[in-house]
């Protein structure tokens, strides 16, 4: 992060809130001309500070408004078992996010489904086919209180 100055940080903050802004609009926001802003954004992309651009969708409108955090414990802790779990889990469309965690469980899944019935089907027919899983624990989201979809900088 040593290579980032205040203008770079301003750009990152602005782009996190609205990546649709044009270079001209970004330049106006940070008081620079468009050419150096364009170069800064390209550099931030090339150096990996900006991974990609995405639209944040409304899950409820897309029939995926029921969110469940599912903690997963593997049967055994072995590199091949862990790799096989990851290979299988990334193929399951209901799994929006997957994190390898420490503590009582090995992985944390963010699952987005239509409703409880859909989650039950997901558990039995998708998660249940992943042989490496030893146990799971589900926590159902009642309301999303905060999600800024970004990194605080």
Describe this structure in words.
This protein has helices at 6-17, 23-30, 34-46, 79-89, 116-125; strands at 66-74, 95-100, 107-113, 133-140. It is α+β, with helices and mostly antiparallel strands. The chain folds into 2 domains: 6-47, Winged helix-like DNA-binding domain superfamily/Winged helix DNA-binding domain (Arc Repressor Mutant, subunit A); 59-140, Lrp/AsnC effector binding domain/regulation of amino acid metabolism (RAM) domain (Alpha-Beta Plaits, 2-Layer Sandwich). A 4-stranded antiparallel β-sheet has the order 2-3-1-4. A hairpin with a 6-residue loop joins strand 2 and strand 3 (107-113). Helix 2 (23-30) packs across helix 3.
Q: From the structure provided, what is the oligomeric state, counting identical versus distinct chains?
A: single chain
The sequence of SSEs as H and E is HHHEHEEHE
> What structural class is derived from the secondary structure elements?
alpha+beta
Give the C-alpha Rg. 20 Å
Shape: elongated
CATH homologous superfamily label of the largest domain: Lrp/AsnC effector binding domain/regulation of amino acid metabolism (RAM) domain
Give the CA-CA distance, first to last residue: 11 Å
Keywords: DNA-binding, Transcription, Transcription regulation
GO biological process, one term: regulation of DNA-templated transcription
Pfam family, one: HTH_24
Domain HTH asnC-type: 4-67
């Amino acid at each position: 992060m040593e290579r980032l100055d205040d203008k770079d940080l301003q750009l990152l903050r602005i782009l996190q809130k609205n990546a649709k802004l044009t270079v001209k609009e970004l330049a106006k926001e940070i008081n620079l001309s468009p050419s150096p802003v364009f170069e800064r954004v390209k550099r931030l992309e090339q150096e990996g500070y900006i991974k990609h651009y995405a639209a944040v969708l409304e899950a409820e409108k897309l029939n995926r408004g029921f969110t469940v955090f599912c903690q997963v414990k593997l049967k055994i802790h072995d590199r091949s078992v862990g790799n096989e779990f990851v290979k299988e889990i990334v193929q399951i469309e209901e799994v929006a996010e997957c994190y390898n965690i420490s503590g009582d469980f090995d992985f944390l899944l963010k699952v987005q489904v239509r409703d409880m019935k859909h989650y039950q089907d997901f558990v039995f027919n998708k998660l249940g086919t992943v042989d490496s899983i030893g146990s799971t624990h589900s926590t159902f989201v009642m309301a999303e209180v905060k999600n800024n979809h970004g990194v605080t900088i």
